[in-house]
Amino acid sequence: MPLSTISRSTDAAPLTEAGASAARKARFWDRIARKYAADPIADMAGYEATLRRVKGLLSTDQDVLEIGCGTGTTALRLAPHTRRLLTTDVSASMIDIAIEKLAAQPVPQLSFAVADADAPVFGQAKFHRVLAFNLLHLVSDLDQALALAVQTLRPGGLLISKTACISEMNPLIPYLALPLMRAIGKAPHVLCFNGDALVSAMEQQGLEIVSVERHGTRGKDIRVFIVARKPA
Fold first, then answer.
1. Mean of the pLDDT values across residues 181-192?
2. Sheet containing 153-164: order of strands
3. Residue 39 domain flag
4. What is the domain extent for residue 186?
């Protein structure tokens, strides 16, 4: 069944551990989806710099996958620069908003589907590029998510990511504020690592690091932009 036609399950069968984790993530993001969609981008100049950089790494003869697409704003900007862009998110409510945006601004290359970045959904060696923006610190298992991204890349393909490195923040935030906010349902589960640790995790999955950059224009930038290649 094509991913674009996947329906939401109403089956009451017991969830696996991975399925339960995906359900927890989905519940959090479903609940805040409309607010998330309404929030402005904090650093628009940095966001535009990232978009320009990514567009330079895409072409209209490439099939591209975006994991953790949120409400699809970035996908709508990038899809015209691809042959096909499949964008996914664990939150059905986020995807609903993305589909609304696509209906208002049709882009024939673009499609959306509900899928978990921590789950093996896409098969092997199908995409020239895999995009992961503001996602890798939110997965349940970084090594698993990276391994799945590597699997779905064609040889020579690129993983292009931009990730908040939580351990580069003031220690009071990841180790005090975030746990408290998570306990009251105001924050998701996050992984705490720095840029060097993320690079190391990618290298452990066999990826070759092409570039490590920071595009922020407002103070300290904790969001590291990494381009990594799957060896041919």
1. 83
2. 110-114, 84-89, 63-67, 127-133, 153-164, 223-229, 208-214
3. yes
4. 16-229
| pLDDT per residue as tens digits for the range 85-139 | 999 999 999 999 999 999 999 999 999 999 999 988 777 899 999 999 999 999 9
17 contacts: CB under 8 Å, gap ≥ 6: none
Q: What is the pLDDT of residues 55-71, one digit of tens each?
A: 999 999 999 999 999 99
User: Residue 54: in which H helix or E strand, if any?
Assistant: helix 44-55
Six-digit token string for 138 = 């939110």
Give a yes or no: residue 189 inside a domain.
yes
Winning range, highest mean pLDDT, from 5-9, 21-25, 132-136:
132-136
Domain holding 133: CATH number? 3.40.50.150
| The 3-state secondary structure of 3-44, one letter per residue | HHHCCCCCCCCCCCHHHHHHHHHHHHHHHHHHHHHHCCCCCH
| Residues 113, 94: Cα–Cα separation, whole Å | 10
Triad 190, 194, 196: Cα angle to 5°: 140
Distances (CA, A) of 202 to 123, 190, 212: 19, 18, 12
Instruction: Return the residue matching tokens 């939401």.
Output: 8
- Which residue, 226, 2, 229, is CA-closest to 114? 2
- Report the number of distinct structural domains present in the chain: 1
Neighbour-count burial of 121, counting CB atoms closer than 10 A to its CB (0-12 exposed, 13-18 middle, 19+ buried)? middle
| 88 is a domain residue | yes
Domain-embedded: residue 29:
yes
pTM tops 0.85: yes
Q: Identify the three-state secondary structure at position 182.
A: helix
